Amino acid sequence: xMRLPRFEYRAPGDVAEVVRILAGEGPAAMLLAGGTDVLxxxxxxxxxxxxxxxxxxxxxxxxxxxxxxxxxxxxxxLTDLVRDVRVREEYPGLWxxxxxxxxxxxxxxxxxxxxxxxxxRCTYYDQNHEWRRAIDYCMKKDGETCWVAPSSSRCLAxxxxxxxxxxIALGARVRLVSSGGRRxxxxxxLYRNDGIAYTVRRPDxxxxxxxxGPADGWRSTYWKLRRRGAFDFPVLSVAAAxxxxxxxxxxxxxxxxxxxxxxxxxxxxxxxxLQGARLTDATIAEAGAAAARxxxxxxxxxxxxxxxxxxxxxxxxxxxxxxxxxxxxxxRRRVARxxxxxxxx
Length: 345
Known about the structure:
Blueprint: E1 8-10, H1 15-25, E2 29-32, H2 38-43, E3 51-54, E4 64-66, E5 70-73, H3 78-82, H4 85-90, H5 92-99, H6 104-109, H7 112-116, H8 129-134, H9 163-169, E6 173-178, E7 181-186, E8 206-212, E9 218-225, E10 236-244, E11 250-258, E12 265-266, H10 268-274, H11 281-292, H12 305-310, H13 312-324, H14 329-335
Parallel strand pairs: 1-3, 2-3
Antiparallel strand pairs: 4-5, 5-8, 6-7, 6-8, 9-10, 10-11, 11-12
């Protein structure tokens, strides 16, 4: 049985108290919201914080704000998002991403902010302490070598967050708060392509909320590839969003790939191909090929890396056809093993 290491638990009542603790404890403290990622990592000794800062009593982190856009508190659970009618109707890409995270039980605990800050994953890193010690650890924790690519100068653990690609495609922003003030950061700029330092959030900062602009005619979608239709992290994901003119041409578009690097990857070439064009089969195929060139998966997760790269263009094509209005329910059941046809997912 894997047990948690010893730690001190703090339960602040508001954001100001949280950031005071973070400022005082520094990197020795970690935040605990749903705990679905942090606690298993602690049991495997991947993360061994001296202090856990529980966020359950911080009411303002669970708030929602309506207006021209939508403001979502960081500790809203993924189930809260799935049950939110406005999220489902106006931001379907985010709804689909939240609905495909893990299982119902884990969505009941896991939070939106936690999923955005999800630790990067790797076949060599996501093992118990004894297994990792047997191979002399890895660069991400206690070692010096990235076992995915031993000559690499950086960790190649992969980004496995579902909600980040969807929020990037939707042009969302996050608010980071510290004792020194606050800053608003586009989700597209929250991540680094580094398996260890994978976000720009500092140890003394708390992610408090996510802000989405008005839907304004944007359509969005999220596709996820995994071995099983529940529980598994993505081995490839695609988030796409587009705003259409009256005549059906694309005015703006964003295409984002997940689980192909240590950060979600934005395909500017695919977006440029789509802008001003109609979503014909030829345009979709061309955009899919352009986006797939970003996919350079490594041998750090499930399935073979060659196959994961080969299917990237196809998954982008599914997303764009769904934006076009095609009925993709059969393909979604076949590829994602998830119908996404119930309000409670």
